[in-house]
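Structure first, sequence second, as always.
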């Protein structure tokens, strides 16, 4: 997706550029068709989705790379699913909706992604505190 957005921006420099923000979270969610007759739509809901949406919004505040895109923003839990052996670096703490749960957030710059190999993800963030 990122390479396609970069290519489109290069092909049409006189038009407003495409932007891309990616946020990852993992966990349970409810998905299904919701609504009333005549206005049914597929939706996903739950804390997992809410956190991912907030991470995507938070991604707006991250510094973009040379192509104008911020890195991938994800929870530490999602990062550990990608590579459980890695000592992931935490960007910041993010408070969940209930105000009691601290969620560790990881930013992975696109420059740290090597041909889509998740194990090659790099981060310039701070180490996780025990």
């Amino acid at each position: 997706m990122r390479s396609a957005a970069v290519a489109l921006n290069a092909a049409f420099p006189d038009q407003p550029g495409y932007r891309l923000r990616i946020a990852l979270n993992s966990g349970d969610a409810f998905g299904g068709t919701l609504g009333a007759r005549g206005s049914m739509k597929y939706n996903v809901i739950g804390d997992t989705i809410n956190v991912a949406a907030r991470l995507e919004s938070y991604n707006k505040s991250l510094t973009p790379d040379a192509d104008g895109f911020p890195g991938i923003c994800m929870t530490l839990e999602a990062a550990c699913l990608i590579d459980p052996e890695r000592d992931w670096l935490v960007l910041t703490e993010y408070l969940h909706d209930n105000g009691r749960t601290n969620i560790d957030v990881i930013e992975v710059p696109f420059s740290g992604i090597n041909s889509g190999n998740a194990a090659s993800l790099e981060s310039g963030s701070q180490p996780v505190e025990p």
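Margin note: The longest helix spans residues 47-58.
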